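ok new one. same drill as before - structure tokens go in, u give me an amino acid for every spot. 367 of them this time. try not to just spam alanines like last time pls lmao
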């Protein structure tokens, strides 16, 4: 029993640290997920939840750092009873979110492990039940965990250090880009290839006749069978990118052009939230690439309306034509507003936050 309890203790602490660090790797992605929950709660419970959208990034770093700190405190067995009850409060909160998502199909991915591990709502809920099981084993068998690895002031110093490191990791990622990119638009990926299936998709057909349901791997020639559903047998071979599209104001599709040649995409997700202080440097970069020997074509892409963007670009003196894409897609393309994507024939060669605006020489070196 002693060994089992200690295994549960270690797993619970390690999983909390892992979960927190994965979220801190991409605090903006975690904030997007929180915003989804707040929008749902505003509709289903009370409108005041919309207020929390404005502090989603702060909550993202706070909750993620709390996971790391409580995981460290548990592994150190520091103030064990207080730590366990704090973990219990977080677990109940997470279990409620995942159950609500699963039962009412509200948020299809809880973001428990960021974009590193995608969990379906019910899988997320059962994961939380497993963590609650680990918690119960540890809580009701604390007699096997009497030895404290860091007592008094030393323990406080360790926990404080863990908090400082966690917050530092999150703040740096917030002001730059994720340390590890798990999204389809990461450096090295070929967007064009990811828009195509990796193998021919195979399907099964669910048909019904006379109250009997049957599955077919080929569509039946018997016209008495009525079609009910078509299910992919190898969905993992389907396109990894299904919604990337760029168009002009008149709806002319420019996706193929974007994925051809050397391109510098300046992504401005939303003009109301775009950082305006960096546009003198951005404008200088756009002017410099015009004379590049690498024949780099800059393209400004936004999800804002043409009217909004036209006012914005005059305010910041942004030169050149601009194009449009879906706002959710642009949030996945780069976690920065504005942000930069460097493409060579559709292959991502570089991504930059507006705090790390590259020079023309840097772009040419990538291409």
């Amino acid at each position: 029993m002693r060994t089992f309890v200690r295994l549960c203790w270690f797993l619970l602490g390690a999983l909390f640290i892992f979960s927190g660090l994965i979220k801190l790797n991409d605090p903006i992605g975690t904030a997007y997920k929180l915003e989804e929950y707040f929008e749902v709660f505003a509709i289903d419970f009370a409108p005041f939840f919309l207020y929390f959208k404005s502090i989603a990034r702060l909550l993202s770093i706070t909750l993620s750092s709390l996971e790391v700190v409580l995981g460290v405190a548990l592994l150190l067995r520091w103030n064990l009873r207080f730590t366990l009850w704090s973990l219990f409060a977080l677990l109940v909160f997470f279990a409620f979110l995942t159950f609500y998502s699963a039962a009412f199909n509200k948020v299809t991915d809880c973001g428990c492990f960021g974009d590193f591990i995608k969990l379906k709502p019910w899988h997320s809920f059962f994961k939380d039940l497993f963590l609650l099981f680990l918690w119960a084993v540890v809580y009701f068998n604390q007699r096997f965990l009497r030895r404290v690895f860091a007592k008094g002031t030393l323990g406080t110093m360790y926990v404080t250090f863990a908090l400082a490191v966690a917050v530092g990791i999150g703040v740096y990622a917030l002001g730059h880009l994720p340390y590890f990119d798990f999204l389809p638009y990461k450096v090295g990926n070929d967007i064009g290839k990811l828009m195509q299936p990796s193998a021919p998709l195979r399907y099964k057909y669910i048909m019904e006749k006379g109250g009997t349901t049957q599955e077919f791997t080929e569509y039946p020639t018997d016209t008495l069978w009525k079609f009910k559903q078509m299910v992919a047998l190898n969905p993992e071979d389907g396109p990894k990118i299904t919604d990337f599209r760029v168009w002009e104001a008149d709806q002319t599709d420019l996706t193929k052009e974007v994925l051809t040649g050397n391109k510098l995409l300046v992504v401005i997700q939303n003009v109301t939230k775009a950082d305006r202080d960096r546009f003198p440097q951005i404008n200088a970069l756009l002017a410099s690439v015009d004379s590049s020997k690498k024949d780099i074509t800059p393209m400004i892409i936004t999800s804002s309306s043409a009217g909004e963007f036209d006012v914005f670009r005059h305010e910041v003196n942004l030169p050149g034509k601009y194009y449009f894409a879906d706002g959710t897609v642009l949030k996945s393309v780069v976690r920065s507003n504005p942000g930069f994507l460097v493409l060579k024939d559709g292959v991502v060669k570089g991504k930059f936050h507006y705090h790390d605006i590259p020079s023309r020489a840097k772009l040419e070196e990538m291409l």
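The longest strand covers residues 203-209. and btw DSSP finds twelve helices and eight strands in the chain.
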